[in-house]
């Protein structure tokens, strides 16, 4: 599973003030599955994320494998959340969103909640996980298109900067994520940024181990 610990810069945002696990209800022009619809557990705690956000980090799950229908993708979301919360001790699933090979986007932490997906980079980025192992094969076209549509929606809704930069997880962490084939693919997408080339290019931050 493509995982990481949370890192926030000095002067991190205050605790997220909403008292419920529900995020803002939004309507998208692509299939979108809310936390309630995939039976997400309640987050232990939340930190707010300052918007608009300047970076998008693309991941693959590696495991669970690609899911091609709603029930399997919902199960994959629960599996990732359980691993992150129970094995890693985090507050919630690490990703802000995931996208299944069924062509649907799945709500993780959401747009304005700090994720736990890219060490040194969580406080300036949204993490989107394409469920599956994309080391040797390309995700289905529907999965790629929905990921791109989700990013475009983030810009339209004001959660992402219009000049946001897109990077792969391996650019900000010593990892093979998001897989060689998917990484090659995202380099053709709008807003792809070759810098940072590695975590060595990133500023020092304070780390929170349990999020």
From TrEMBL:
Gene3D superfamilies: Peptidoglycan recognition protein-like. Disulfide bonds join 67-73. GO terms for biological process: innate immune response; peptidoglycan catabolic process. Keywords: Disulfide bond, Immunity, Innate immunity, Signal. The keyword Disulfide bond applies. Residues 30-173 form the Peptidoglycan recognition protein family domain. Coiled coil: none annotated. Belongs to the N-acetylmuramoyl-L-alanine amidase 2 family. This is Peptidoglycan-recognition protein. It comes from Pararge aegeria aegeria.
């Amino acid at each position: 599973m493509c995982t990481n610990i949370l890192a926030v810069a000095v002067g991190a945002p205050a605790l997220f003030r909403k008292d419920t696990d529900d995020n803002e209800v939004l309507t998208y022009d692509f299939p979108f599955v809310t936390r309630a619809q995939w039976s997400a557990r309640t987050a232990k705690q939340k930190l707010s994320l300052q918007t608009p956000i300047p970076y998008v980090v693309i991941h693959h799950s590696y495991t669970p494998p690609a899911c091609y229908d709603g029930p399997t993708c919902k199960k994959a979301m629960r599996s990732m959340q359980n691993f992150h919360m129970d094995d890693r001790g985090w507050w919630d699933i690490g990703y802000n969103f995931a996208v299944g090979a069924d062509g649907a986007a799945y709500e993780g932490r959401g747009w304005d909640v700090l994720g736990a997906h890219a060490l040194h980079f969580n406080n300036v980025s949204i993490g989107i996980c394409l469920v599956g192992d994309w080391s040797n094969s390309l995700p289905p076209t529907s999965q790629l298109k929905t990921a791109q549509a989700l990013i475009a929606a983030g810009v339209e809704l004001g959660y992402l900067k219009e000049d946001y930069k897109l990077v792969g997880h391996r650019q900000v962490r010593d990892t093979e994520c998001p897989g060689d084939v998917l990484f090659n693919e995202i380099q053709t997408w709008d807003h792809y940024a070759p810098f940072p080339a590695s975590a060595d290019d990133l500023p020092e931050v304070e780390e929170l181990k349990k999020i």
